[in-house]
Each structure stands twice: as structure tokens, then as C-alpha cells.
Design goal:
The complex is a heterotrimer of chains A (311), B (262) and C (412).
Chain A (H helix, E strand, L loop, with lengths): L21 H37 L5 H6 L3 E2 L4 E2 L2 H32 L2 H16 L2 H20 L8 H25 L3 H9 L4 H12 L1 H17 L2 H6 L17 H10 L7 H35 L1
Antiparallel strand pairs in A: 1-2
Helix pairs in contact in A: 1-12, 3-6, 3-9, 4-6, 5-6, 6-9, 7-8, 9-12, 11-12
Chain B lengths: L8 E12 L2 E12 L3 E5 L6 H8 L9 E9 L2 E2 L7 H7 E4 L10 H11 L6 H11 L3 H4 L12 H14 L4 E5 L7 H14 L4 E5 L3 H7 L2 E7 L7 E8 H6 L4 H7 L5
Parallel strand pairs in B: 3-8, 3-9, 6-7, 7-8
Antiparallel strand pairs in B: 1-2, 1-4, 4-5, 9-10
Chain C lengths: L10 H44 E8 L16 H11 L2 H10 L7 H13 L1 E6 L2 H6 L1 H11 L4 E6 L3 H5 L12 H32 L4 H13 L4 H15 L1 H4 L14 H25 L3 H9 L4 H30 L2 H6 L19 H9 L4 H35 L1
Antiparallel strand pairs in C: 1-2, 1-3
Classes of the chains: A mainly alpha (311), B alpha/beta (262), C mainly alpha (412).
The structure holds adenosine-5'-triphosphate and magnesium ion.
The site of magnesium ion has 3 residues of chain B, from helix 1.
């Protein structure tokens, strides 16, 4: 049998000119559109929130002075002071960070500096499971476990809905995020640095706290910022456990409604599209978006810098 | 640690073998290292030089599953004895690494940190100055002590690492290819520094550079995988540097130092 | 430097200070470890709290005496007898309505039994107890019920039952189920994935295989990372403004001749959720594509394949498990998300199965939210049951993701 593969192919016509490949270009354009779509989403968020927020601020009853200098928020009856929502958001987020930063950092230090690989592989799933639980379930936990617990410790002063319970549970929810980002940062510190410390007669603890942790500080900072952004944007826990109704207070045992909780409660009902209630929600949402956007951007820049330092 | 003063010898190994898990990386090393001398360890890549060096200050403790058999004796005490504290060992046997690894702190803090954790009671400024003078870095950095150590050049960083090591006043300094990441001029400075340091310290240095070993060391240990097929390294010849380079007993040593090695 | 001039503690005193250092070190190590312990305890407390709520004693009374309807004990009735009771005692309008929803003869015995209880006898729950209380204080509870509610029956109940999974919503906690919520969740997630998977994978391919390092592509990448961190409630607002309101003719189905709904439909929710999980799918997709070794691409190019042929025949098949894992994670995220659904207006009381993308809907987490915020404790009990259903669903999904991930790891 004649072996066609071994035949001399020199006589085959050779054409190396560029060819039109319409199929390829169509596919490439489709893929490009998919990529660019994400930008449209951001634009749409800014446009939609901005448009409605503008309607809100253009309302003759709303002035910036009222918005920033009064402390009662009830757009339906002409009270436009944003502060009660902001203070509740700040209080719950601060409690959450107060819980999650030390715990998350300690967990990260244990996992990256002390745990054997085997211990790590049994301990990490705990954090992964915590991270995978829907926030509405944390809400249930806050209202029906944490609040009674706080009431049994601190007594009557703890209201049924209160910021402390929501904040603490939010801290538990954010803990895995801070732990895993911090652990990444700690493990990125080169081994040579640890060896340098050990070689000078440092104990493991001195090495991890005085050498490794400072070296990874920017990474830990990025984790903190993302944690804050998460806490500010978290909705369900505060909607369930922190109280419904704006309340200008920093007392964590009192009920107060956060920005997110407020949006969730008001929009849950039947809202007519052109009411001041409707547009005011968008103004609040826009603030939320901008704050978290800035935090996320800062954290990204910090992580990028940190990576460059050690790679 | 003042018992059994043996004046001539800083450290001694007896039938020392080092394992990573089941793998025997270094086998049966017997050496007597003289005080205030520089001993070079040479040999082809992967023969266990770093492993042996890191056994002296128990840095291999951090490798899971590693262990040693035999003894390393320092003034009569076995460094791997059950009553020995590895942190104390590292305090008295300092180490300088291949790549400079200053801490991400100021120049001053790089030196003060080790002193502080080890309970230094004297004048810190003085200690920093003396250590930096001791490592021939003082003149270059005396005005910028608060700057980050990362802003120094590689050669300066390495001298800073030497400075922080001598600041804790060990009796032995281990150096694992301390100049391999440096340019020739910085290398020369480190070599001069070693000559200076040996007045007070015993130095053990791993190097790939034959000329360097010949230039700086008093004694040389030649390491090699012990036989065909085995992956364990051992010291095949150990004597005065002059002898190793001019009149070695072992054919393999001769091949290696003259560059005829595979 | 003068080595005799030694300011370091030596011998015994160094030993002592070292022991002190070790003590501090081990205290701190214990503290670090306890952070993980606290995490573990929180997880345990959370799961316990949920299970605790889903089982326990219930004290209830019958508003109408069962003997008014039948001489036999209720539990002994067969299907036919139950049907007859319903027929004779319900008003004909109510019966016809039920029959129209689903033919009565076709309903199972347990459904009919529930209907008899719900519509005729009518249960009035007096009080519920948690599982722990029920086990530890059983006798006290019995005494309390005998004293306070002499008419009441006391029963140890699992609120989570097969019937709970298969019955639709009800205004009475005792008869409510999550059937419509589960179906709503599935529809919503299905639409979300149908929307986000092709676009997300496309974007991932574009960014990994086509994009050069120019300004536009850097913006796209940064933007995607940022979108992943936007609070979910903001996506809800976007969905409200765009899908529910602006695109109402499309999302309500009125474009297609459906008249009885507004824009608050499964379609709006699904698309909103699709946008929410899109960044997640893109980022996971990019990771999966990045993990495909370059040698594979070069081999394909080497035998004259075009770029798309290389991607389609070599890169994608190898990245597929990773992309799949990413989609499962996205599905888990979408199933658990609640806030955007509240914003785009999930209804809470849906007793009919959703029929398509233009139906009104509810979803599992919405039900959890709704029931948790009710004051009556029997609603907390069904909230706990719904949470268990939700968690089991998520656990199954994640187990699937882990299995796929392990398969892939073995390959390279
Ligand atoms: N941490 C470790 N775990 C397991 N094996 C190791 C480890 N470190 C080194 N080895 C093995 O021990 C042997 C000796 O390694 P070592 O680093 O001591 O060689 P070396 O002589 O210093 O080589 P080089 O000149 O390249 O630095 C090698 O086979 C190496 O693979
Ligand atoms: Mg080496």
C-alpha cells in the first residue's frame, strides 16, 4: 500500500497570506462584549443610583444642611437627617470589626505559624463552613441566640432588637474572611525572614509577632479594610436583629436601623416609584456603594503593593 | 555553659548523621573544629553542606520529620541532648544566610531587636555602633540608622546581617554562602571582615567558590556523596586548607578543587 | 568590640529569662488557638440553635372538637372518609376553590388530613418549647401545660417533616411548608446561572486568552474585582431600578401577553442574582483557565490550530471542572442571598407553584427571614426547619464542588 503520509508535499500549493476567518472574529467580538459587560454593570449602578439620588436631592424639601446636620430620618414626613442610619451602621460595623479583627488575626497566626499541615487541613474547614453560611441564617442566630445570651448577661438594658447582638454575629460572619486574607499575607512572608529571626535566638512567638506580623502588616490591613466594607454592606443580620426604625444612638444595647437595614425594610413593602421614600433609598444606596467602592479599591491597591514587595 | 573548657576546639561532631524523614542526607561526620579559626565546607551541589551547617545551630528543627543521630559537642555538651534548649543554642551559634535577610525594620532596630529579645542590659546605642563597626558598615550608615534596612544595597544588607549576628555575641558564626548573592567588591569586603572577625569568633562557612575557600579559611572540609548510588553526603577529607588545595589525600578532592569534577 | 564586656544575662539568669519567654509564648499560642476554638464554638452554637428550634414540645388546642366531624379517632380515617368530611363541612365555594387548585381526589391522604386539621378542626398553638427545654424540663412543661392550658394537648414535634417540604405556604405556622419557596429558589437560580455562566465564562476567556495588557483590559479586571465586593443590597437596588421598573414590560411578561403580574417576577430576581454572581463566575473561570498548562496551547498552535480552535478543543475541556466548581459556588451564593430578593420584591405568601419566569415568587431565604421576624414562636420553629433545608441544600452543593475539585487535582 502506498504511504500517503510520507509522500513529498513540496508540490502542494503554498499560500501563507492572511486569511479572513469570520467565525474567529465573531467569536472574539462576543467574548469581548462579555468582558466589557462588567463595565456596563458598574456604569448602570452609578447611573441608576445617581439618577434617583439626584431626584431626591433636587426635592425642594431636601437640603444638604438638613441631610447632614439633623438627626432624624423619616423622608415620608419631611425629616431628612441621615445621621441615625449612619451611626447605626458605624456602631454595628465597629462592633463587628472589634470581634472579627483580633479573632481573625489570631486564627490566621495560629494557622500559618503554629499549625502542622495536618492540623491546618482539619481546622480550615471550620472557617470555610462559617464563610458559607447564608447571612439570613446568621440573622436568625443573632436574634434567637445572641440577643437572649446578651440579655442573660447584661440584663434588662439589652433591648430585644439591639446593635450589639447584630454586630457580634456580623463579626463572627466576617471572621473567616479576615482570617483567610491575613493568613495569605502571613504565609507570603518569605521563610528566610523567619530563619533570620530564629537564628538570633528568637522563640517562635517572638518571631511571629515581632518579625512576621510587621512584615505582613499591609496585607493584614487590606483584610481589615475588606472586612469593614463587608460589615457596612451587610444587610440581613442587621435587618433581622438590629431593629427597625432609625434611632440616633451609639448605645449598642439599643435598637437602631442601619443604612442597609433601612433599605431592606422600606423596599420590602409596596413602594410607589416616584415617592420621596423611593428616591431616598437610592440616595442611601449610593452612599453605601461609594463608601464600599473606595474601601475595596484601597484594599486592592494595598494587596498589590504587598505582593510586589515579596515577589 | 562554662563547664569543661576545651581550649582548642570550639565544636566537635561525633558520628553525626542527619535525616529528612527516612532520607539520610548526611552520614557519619566526625570533625573537630578549632577555635577562632575559619573552617570552610566545600563540595558539589546537593551533597549536604547546608544541611550540616544548619545542624550546628539546630535550624533543621524547623523541617518537619528531620532528626539527627550522633552528637555535636560544644564544650562537652551535646547540642542535641535532651536537656538542651535550641533557642540557647542559636543564641550562642549565630548564622548568616545565603541571601541577605534583614528584618523589615530600621537599620538600628535590625540590630537592637536580637539584643533586646536576648535580654541585653547595656547601652543599646553603643552596641549598635560597635556591631556596625565590627561589620565594617558603620561609616556608611551612621547617619541613616532610622532608615529601613531594605534601602541598603545587597552587600550592605549582608554586612548588616553580620552585624546583627555579632551583636548578640555568639561564640560561633555559621555562614552559608554569604557572598554568593553579592558582587566581587562586596564579596571582598565580606572576606576581609571574616579575617577581622576570627579574632573573636569561630567561623564555619559554606562556599562554592574554591578561591574564596583557599583565601579565607584555615581548615577545609570536603563533602561528597559517599558512594555511587547512595544519596547521602559525607565529609571525605578534612584538614588544613593548604593541604586540601596543594596535596589532598583523596583523588576526588583533587579532582574537585582543580575543577576536573564531573 | 570587646567580647568580655558582656551585658547579656548568662547561665542561670539567661535560663530564667528564657523560661519566662517560653511561658509568654505558650500563653499566646493558647490564645491564638482559642480564636479557632471560638470560631468552632460559634459554628456549633449556630447549628445547635437551629436544630434546637426545629424540634420540641408544642401545646395546642383544637378550636373545634373533632367529634363534631367524625366519630372515629382522626388518625384512623382513610382517604375517602377524609374527603367526605371536607366535602360536607367546607363551604361549597371554599371546596371548589381548593378543587380548582388541585383536584381533591388526586391529593394524598396526608394532604387531606392536614386540610381537615387546618380548615375544620383548626389548631390553636398555645406555646412551643425548644428541644433542650423539652428534653431537660419535660415534667415541668407537662405540669405547666396541665395548669395553664387544661384543654391543650402536648406533643413532641419535629417541625421538619416530609409534609413541610411538600406543602405550600400557609398563614398558620403549623400548616406552612417550603414547597413554593424551594421551587422559587430553583427557578431563580436556574435563570441566574443561565444568564451568568455563558457571559461569565466568555469574559474569563476574553481576559485570559485574548486580552493584552492595555488600559481598557486593566480597567475591566479591576472593575470585576470591585464588583465582587459591592454589597448585595446594591445589586438589589440595581435590579429594582432596571429589571423591575425600567424593563417591566419584558420582566412582567406583558410583552408576551401575560397580564396579571408586575415586574416583581422570578425573571427579575433571576437576572438580578445573575448580575450579582457574574464577578464570582468570571474570577473563578479565570483561575480555572490560568491553571491549564501553556504547553497544551503551544501543542495545539504547533499543529496549525487557530486561536479559537485551541481554546475550544484544548483549553476549555481542561478548564471545565474548575469552571463547574466555580458555578456551583455561584449557585450556593445565589441560593443563600436574601437582601436583593427583598429589594426586587419577592412576595412572602405564595401558595401556588411558580409556573414560569413571569410568576410571582418566594424563595427559601426569604421565608427564613419572614418567619424569623414574626413574633410567634411557632414561626421561629418553621424558620429553623427552613434553615435546615437550606443548609442541607448548600452542603450538598459544596460536597459536589469538593468532589469535582479533588478529581481535577489528581490530573495534573
Ligand atoms: N528541607 C528538606 N527536606 C527534605 N530534603 C532536603 C531538605 N533540604 C535539603 N534536602 C535534601 O538534602 C540533600 C542535601 O541538601 P543541602 O541543601 O544540604 O545541599 P547543599 O550541599 O547545601 O547544596 P547546594 O550547594 O546546592 O546548596 C539534598 O538531596 C536535598 O534535596
Ligand atoms: Mg546549600
Amino acid at each position: 500500500m502506498k504511504n500517503t503520509i510520507m509522500e513529498n508535499k513540496n508540490f502542494r500549493p503554498l499560500d501563507l497570506k492572511k486569511k479572513m476567518r469570520p467565525g474567529e472574529s465573531v467569536i472574539q467580538s462576543l467574548l469581548f462584549i462579555s468582558g466589557v459587560l462588567s463595565i456596563f454593570i458598574t456604569v448602570a449602578i452609578v447611573y441608576e443610583l445617581g439618577k434617583e439620588a439626584l431626584l431626591f436631592f433636587n426635592n425642594p424639601d431636601v437640603t444638604l444642611t438638613k441631610f447632614f446636620a439633623t438627626t432624624q430620618w423619616q423622608p415620608g414626613i419631611g425629616l431628612f437627617g441621615i445621621w441615625p442610619l449612619v451611626t447605626a451602621t458605624l456602631t454595628t460595623s465597629a462592633i463587628a470589626i472589634f470581634v472579627s479583627l483580633p479573632l481573625g488575626l489570631a486564627a490566621a497566626l495560629f494557622l500559618s505559624e503554629y499549625a502542622t499541615p495536618k492540623a491546618r487541613s482539619t481546622l480550615k474547614p471550620i472557617l470555610e463552613v462559617l464563610a458559607g453560611i447564608p447571612t439570613v441564617v446568621y440573622g436568625y442566630f443573632a436574634l434567637l441566640f445572641m440577643t437572649p445570651l446578651l440579655q442573660s448577661i447584661f440584663g434588662e438594658s439589652v433591648q430585644v432588637y439591639n446593635m450589639a447582638s447584630a454586630g457580634i454575629v456580623m463579626g463572627i460572619m466576617i471572621l473567616p474572611l479576615i482570617a483567610s486574607m491575613s493568613e495569605d499575607a502571613l504565609s507570603a512572608v518569605p521563610r528566610s525572614l523567619r530563619e533570620g529571626a530564629y537564628a538570633m535566638g528568637a522563640t517562635k512567638f517572638e518571631t511571629s509577632i515581632q518579625v512576621v506580623l510587621p512584615a505582613s502588616l499591609s496585607g493584614v490591613g487590606a483584610a481589615l479594610i475588606i472586612g469593614i466594607s463587608r460589615a457596612i454592606g451587610e444587610t440581613m443580620i442587621v435587618a433581622i436583629a438590629s431593629g427597625s426604625g432609625p434611632n440616633f444612638t451609639f448605645n449598642p444595647f439599643k435598637a437602631a436601623e442601619t443604612m442597609t437595614g433601612h433599605i431592606a425594610r422600606i423596599s420590602g413593602g409596596d413602594l410607589s416609584y416616584n415617592s420621596i421614600d423611593y428616591t431616598s433609598l437610592f440616595a442611601v444606596a449610593l452612599m453605601l456603594f461609594l463608601v464600599t467602592l473606595v474601601l475595596n479599591l484601597i484594599s486592592q491597591v494595598v494587596v498589590e503593593r504587598f505582593r510586589e514587595k515579596y515577589e | 555553659m562554662q563547664t569543661n573548657e576545651t581550649p582548642e576546639y570550639a565544636i566537635e561532631t561525633k558520628d553525626l548523621s542527619i535525616f529528612y524523614g527516612a532520607f539520610k542526607a548526611v552520614s557519619d561526620v566526625n570533625m573537630l573544629l578549632e577555635k577562632q579559626k575559619i573552617t570552610a565546607i566545600i563540595g558539589p551541589s546537593g551533597c549536604g553542606k547546608s544541611t550540616l551547617l544548619r545542624a550546628f545551630n539546630r535550624m533543621n528543627d524547623f523541617v518537619p520529620n528531620s532528626h539527627v543521630t550522633g552528637e555535636i559537642l560544644m564544650r562537652g555538651q551535646n547540642l542535641y541532648g535532651s536537656n538542651i534548649d535550641p533557642v540557647e543554642v542559636r543564641r550562642s551559634i549565630g548564622m548568616v544566610f545565603q541571601k541577605p535577610n534583614p528584618f523589615p525594620k530600621s537599620i538600628y532596630e535590625n540590630i537592637a531587636w536580637g539584643a533586646r529579645i536576648n535580654g541585653f542590659k547595656g547601652n543599646m546605642d553603643e552596641l549598635v555602633e560597635q556591631s556596625l563597626r565590627g561589620s565594617a558598615l558603620w561609616e556608611e550608615v551612621k547617619d541613616v540608622l532610622q532608615k529601613s534596612a531594605y534601602e541598603l544595597s545587597g552587600g550592605q544588607q549582608q554586612r548588616l546581617c553580620i552585624a546583627r549576628t555579632i551583636a548578640i555575641q555568639p561564640s560561633i558564626i555559621l555562614m552559608d554562602e554569604p557572598a554568593s548573592a553579592l558582587d566581587p567588591i562586596s564579596t571582598l569586603r565580606i572576606e576581609e571582615l571574616m579575617q577581622e572577625l576570627k579574632k573573636n569568633y569561630t567561623i564555619i562557612i559554606v562556599t562554592h567558590n574554591m578561591q574564596q575557600a583557599a583565601r579565607v579559611s584555615d581548615y577545609t572540609a570536603m563533602m561528597m556523596l559517599d558512594k555511587e548510588g547512595s544519596r547521602s553526603g559525607t565529609v571525605i577529607e578534612f584538614s588544613e586548607t593548604k593541604r586540601i588545595f596543594t596535596n589532598p589525600k583523596d583523588k576526588r578532592t583533587e579532582d574537585y578543587v582543580t575543577g576536573r569534577f564531573g | 568590640m570587646n567580647p568580655t564586656d558582656n551585658h547579656y544575662p548568662t547561665g542561670e539568669s539567661f535560663r530564667k529569662s528564657l523560661n519566662g519567654r517560653y511561658r509568654i509564648a505558650s500563653i499566646w499560642q493558647a490564645i491564638f488557638f482559642s480564636a479557632l476554638l471560638i470560631a468552632l464554638l460559634s459554628l456549633a452554637a449556630l447549628l445547635y440553635n437551629v436544630v434546637d428550634g426545629a424540634f420540641g414540645y408544642v401545646a395546642f388546642e383544637y378550636k373545634n372538637d373533632p367529634t363534631e366531624f367524625t366519630a372515629k379517632p382522626l388518625d384512623d380515617l382513610n382517604k375517602q372518609e377524609l374527603l367526605e368530611i371536607l366535602q360536607t363541612n367546607l363551604s361549597s365555594g371554599a371546596y371548589t376553590k381548593l378543587d380548582n387548585e388541585k383536584t381533591m381526589e388526586k391529593r394524598s391522604k396526608s394532604v387531606l388530613y392536614t386540610l381537615v386539621l387546618e380548615r375544620l378542626i383548626q389548631v390553636d398553638t398555645k406555646k412551643t418549647w425548644s428541644m433542650t427545654d423539652s428534653i431537660l424540663r419535660g415534667n415541668e412543661i407537662k405540669a405547666e401545660v396541665a395548669k395553664k392550658y387544661p384543654e391543650a394537648k402536648l406533643e413532641f414535634r419535629s417541625w421538619l417533616t416530609p409534609v413541610f417540604l411538600t406543602t405550600p405556604m400557609s398563614s398558620k405556622a403549623e400548616f406552612a411548608g417550603v414547597r413554593t419557596a424551594i421551587l422559587g429558589s430553583l427557578w431563580m437560580v436556574g435563570i441566574a446561572i443561565l444568564f451568568a455562566l455563558p457571559i461569565g465564562t466568555g469574559a474569563a476567556i476574553y481576559l485570559q486568552e485574548y486580552a493584552t495588557k492595555n488600559f481598557l483590559n486593566r480597567i475591566i479586571q479591576t472593575n470585576i474585582n470591585n464588583l465582587a465586593g459591592v454589597p448585595s443590597i446594591v445589586y438589589g437596588m440595581l435590579g429594582l431600578a432596571i429589571f423591575v421598573r425600567a424593563l417591566e414590560p419584558f420582566t412582567s411578561g406583558s410583552m408576551f401577553g401575560i397580564t396579571d403580574t408586575n415586574g416583581r417576577t422570578i425573571l427579575s430576581a433571576g437576572l438580578t442574582m445573575g448580575i450579582l454572581v457574574l464577578p464570582l463566575i468570571i474570577i473563578n473561570g479565570q483561575e480555572a483557565i490560568k491553571a491549564v498548562p501553556d504547553s497544551l496551547r503551544q501543542a495545539a498552535y504547533g499543529i496549525g490550530a487557530t486561536r479559537w480552535q485551541t481554546i475550544w478543543h484544548h483549553v476549555l475541556p481542561n478548564a471545565l471542572p474548575g469552571i463547574l466548581t466555580g458555578s456551583i459556588l455561584a449557585v450556593s451564593r445565589a441560593i443563600g442571598e436574601t437582601a436583593p430578593l427583598i429589594i426586587v420584591g419577592a412576595s412572602t405568601f405564595i401558595s401556588l407553584d411558580p409556573e414560569g419566569p413571569f410568576s410571582k415568587f418566594t424563595a427559601l431565604p426569604i421565608q427564613v427571614y419572614q418567619w424569623t421576624t414574626r413574633a410567634q414562636t411557632e414561626f421561629h420553629a418553621i424558620a429553623a426547619s427552613a434553615i435546615i433545608v437550606l443548609l442541607i441544600l448548600l452542603l450538598t452543593l459544596n460536597a459536589a464542588a469538593v468532589i469535582i475539585r479533588n478529581r481535577v487535582q489528581r490530573k495534573y
